[in-house]
Amino acid sequence: MLESSLNETQIKDLMKAAILEIFQERRDLFQDLIAEALEDIALVKAIDEGKDSEPVSRKAIFEILESGE
Questions:
Q1: Is the CB of residue 6 less than 8 Å from the CB of residue 14?
Q2: In this prediction, what percent of the chain has a pLDDT beyond 90?
Q3: Which DSSP state fits 33?
Q4: Residue 2 lies in a domain
Q5: 21, 29 in Cβ contact below 8 A?
Q6: How far out from the chain centre does Cα 20 lie?
Q7: How many angstroms separate the CA atoms of 48 and 31, rounded?
Q8: Do the beta carbons of residue 19 and residue 26 sit within 8 Å?
Q9: Cα end-to-end span (Å), the chain
């Protein structure tokens, strides 16, 4: 039985190559992942900013949404 061992540098290089290949072959998944992460960051920021603001009624929110502002 043939055994092969890889050192830490070789393992890192293989992992880097594999990740790069995934990004190149499935660029759409990577773009979706980045877009989702940015949306999450924006949502967290909006929630943090909204913590100190005055409450708004549900009716007022829907009026704004329906007016297209």
A1: yes
A2: 48
A3: H
A4: no
A5: no
A6: 18
A7: 26
A8: no
A9: 70
